[in-house]
Every structure is written in structure tokens, then in C-alpha cells.
Amino acid sequence: MDRELRVDWIACEAFGMCHDLAPDLVALDDWGYPILPSPSEVAARAGDVQRIIDCCPARALSLVRRDGRTQGRRQQRSIGAVPHQGPRLRA
Ligand code: SF4
């Protein structure tokens, strides 16, 4: 089963530790946010991917199966989350 590495952009603090641990797997953009590997790279480097997930200080990384089911540790944080309702308009 293909898995995709995802980042919670709200939680990510742009510390860059994921890049420091696997610079050939995760690049950083101009603001220090990660540019994540493709599913085929994730499959080929499963050990390194799990290591950067475990070491992310913001717990912002997770593995998601291509069918949409989360496998990483981030799934607990989404339970009970209130979806964004968009801006409120004044009458
Ligand atoms: S280690 Fe975590 S917090 Fe830091 S840049 Fe990577 S995903 Fe973001």
C-alpha cells in the first residue's frame, strides 16, 4: 500500500530538523518549511521517513495511506478538532 508523508502546516514550526536528519529526502523552502518526498521515495526510505516523523519536535509529520487513513501519530490531534468556519461577515 502506497503511503504519503504529510505535514500539518499549522503545527510545523519550520525548525528544519527533518531536513537536518535526511537532507537528501527532505528539502526546505525559502521559509524553512519542508518539501516532502514523493510516495515512491517514502516507500524506498521507510526507515528514514519514520525517523524524521519520530524526531519532529512539533509532531507535524504523519504517514497517510493513499486510501486516506492516517498511520502516523498525528491522528490523535485531529480528534475533536473544530473545522475552520471561514471569516465571519458583519451584518
Ligand atoms: S522537523 Fe517538523 S517542525 Fe521542523 S520543519 Fe520538519 S516538519 Fe516542520
Report on the architecture of this protein.
The protein is of the alpha+beta class. The chain has a single domain (3-73), classed as Alpha-Beta Plaits (2-Layer Sandwich). The protein contains 4 helices and 4 strands, in the order E-H-E-E-H-H-E-H. Strand 2 (27-28) and strand 3 (34-35) form a beta hairpin. Mean pLDDT is 83; it is low at 75-85. The structure holds iron/sulfur cluster. Iron/sulfur cluster (SF4) binds at residues 7, 12-18, 34, 56, 58, 60-61. Residues 7, 12-18, 34, 56, 58, 60-61 line the site of iron/sulfur cluster.
Largest sheet, strands/sense/barrel: 2 strands, antiparallel
Q: What value does the average pLDDT take?
A: 83
Oligomer: single chain
Which percent bin holds the helix content? Answer: 25-40%
Count up the helices.
4
The CATH topology annotation reads as Alpha-Beta Plaits
Can you write the helix and strand succession as a string?
EHEEHHEH
Q: State the low-pLDDT regions, or none.
A: 75-85
Approximate strand percentage: 15-25%
Spatial shape: globular
Care to give the gist of this entry?
The chain has 91 residues and is of the alpha+beta class. 27% of the residues lie in helices and 15% in strands.
Secondary structure elements and pairings:
Layout: E1 3-7, H1 17-21, E2 27-28, E3 34-35, H2 39-44, H3 46-55, E4 61-65, H4 75-78
Antiparallel strand pairs: 1-4, 2-3
This protein binds iron/sulfur cluster.
Iron/sulfur cluster is lined by residues 7, 12-18, 34, 56, 58, 60-61.
